[in-house]
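Fig. S4 source data, part A: sequence.
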Amino acid sequence: MRKAVRARMRALVCRVRAARGDAGMVTSEYAMGIVAAVAFAVVLYKVVTSGEVSEELQAIVKRALDARM
């Protein structure tokens, strides 16, 4: 009985491991992810610091500070 249960458990663990496949990223994938994140951050920084967006953000903050409570 114990051998049968142990064999079934072992088979189940093997199936789960096989179904999981490749769960992580390799170093090159991490590097590409970092490059993409930095590129997105640069674009976002350029948009936020542009003249029109900066003026709008300042107007929003000014309205929020001038609001009555």
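Fig. S4 source data, part B ends here. The two ends are 73 Å apart (CA to CA).
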